[in-house]
Amino acid sequence: MALLSASPKWPTLPEYFHDWALVDVETSGLRPGRDRVLSLAVVTLDGHGRRTGEFSTLLDPGCDPGPVHVHGLTRARLAGAPTFEEIAPQVGALLSGRVLAAHNAQFDYDFLAHEFARVRSWVPVSRRLCTLALNRLIAPATPDLKLGTLAAHYGVRQERAHDAQDDVRVLTGILQGSLDAAGRLGLDLPLLACPPRQDYKPFVPKTSCPYRNPGRCQAGNCLVQGMKVAVTGETLVSREELIARSVAAGLNMMTSVSGQTSLLVTNDPGGGTAKLRRAVAEGVPVVDEQTYLRLLDEVQPGQAKGAARPAVASRRRAAETPGEAAAAPRTPTPALPAQRTTTPGARTGPGGADRPLAGRRVLVLGGTHEEAGVARVRVVELGASAAVNLSAKVTDIVLLPGGESDRRMSRITSLGLPVHDADWLLAANTAPVSETGSVQQVPVAESRETTEVLVRGEVVDLAEAGAMWTVAATWGQLTACDVDVVAFLLDVQEQVAGDEDFVFYGEPEHPDGTVRLATDGPTDQAVSVELERLPLEVTRVVIAAAIDGDATFSDVGAVEVVVTRGIGEAPAALAVLDAATTERTMVLAEIYRRGEGWRLRAIGQGYDHALADLARSYGVDIAE
Fold this sequence. Notes:
Number of domains: 4
Radius of gyration: 27 Å
CATH superfamily of the largest domain: Ribonuclease H-like superfamily/Ribonuclease H
Largest sheet: 7 strands, mixed
Structural class: alpha/beta
Number of helices: 16
């Protein structure tokens, strides 16, 4: 499908008409709040793509500039540059009322948000657009989606990579080319709401409790390291000192009370605080401050999270072999699909009798959720990959009953894509067939899809364990509901060692930074995992999606999971997953240790219960 125009035009679609603020930052590191902005460039455009403003500057961060070999910004170069506080009003005026656009926009937005927070202000934008997410939807014919690669694809000259001023100039051309391609496909822009926030705080390293929770503190017994302790009401010792002494003793200090709380400390047992009411309802032991301080002097050793519990050996998984099923969470759940190990290239090689659609990417329109799911399974069986959105890589359309009214059909017709009925998939036994039913062999050179296509239960090796791997989930906006992607870091007992091992929208980053959640659009979220830096006790990272509200995955439709080594890299594997009808939560994939390496397994197992129930099944302490 040829979408690249020799001279891309600024789109005239009303829904694409926005005032834009294109932004690029160079930073001293990768963690907003801890690291600082060293260089900033902004270009503003009106709704017709005409430049209306421009600003760029180096910044004195007051700290080590970090990886100079990447950005070239030494202390000497930054000496004498303004601070962010000095340029914040000018930058705020450029951003105000505009859609912020950046490549990997969450990175730039979060850094700006923390810089503005340091000067007691906020980013004055309400929406942002990630050009990386937009091009994931477009799926241009490029080896990856890095800024330099897309620049070459859209005919933009890149002069100085990792230079904020040049990068934002390049971004301007990429945005124009991307909007032109998206307009030809009729795509909705993945605009993400980001209302101005004032709750960003400087980065404070979190110290997770290194011990397992041994349970309740029984009357007359000592405290044990790992116990979860909460405090409510006024204290004689300052709250900060009390918490610091407790943490130093190896206790897990909590800000709320649940059924897993070991002890509540209060000097007013008749008080009506929410924590006290919850403790009484859950039967959590309650002591006063003086009693707690005495117990604090004699805290007993606990069990380290990385240590094996008794009987763990009998529960540890043996070496996995094809056909072996993985263990499910402890709560009763449907069985997960059996494991199948894929052979590299098995699904993407030249077409043959068993893979007549190899290299094709097929979009199924219409039908019920079950009918569309069956068709997508058939597509993969025939060697093709299934699409959930219309993109530049789609080569064929399968039209099920009702699909002719899909709003994308006018675009499909204008693009000249071949449209088939369901019988096309049944007839394609030896080679692709044309719309008239005649056999039509696809030359190997025309193959579009070269990524490993996984079915439920299938496994692929992650060859570079030292790399950061990203699992991105994308779905069609078939109904108005919010879908949240989450991650659980599990030990050998298939449980989280602590609540901090649950990464979700409220806590989008693990305390050590090894697992992060990014939201790039309303239907595009990703979990990134640094495998080499994961704690040794973590043997598995489970990635799931959950619907907020009463909708189900039959309303949402299929979810596409794309696995890449890093951000913006070429996909290493993909899977299109269909839950059945009533599920509100779905386990998408898992990354797990295999000997000295790691593997990823496509799962696609749905559950009727909500996210809180799934979290509890993995041992997360969720208050009612």
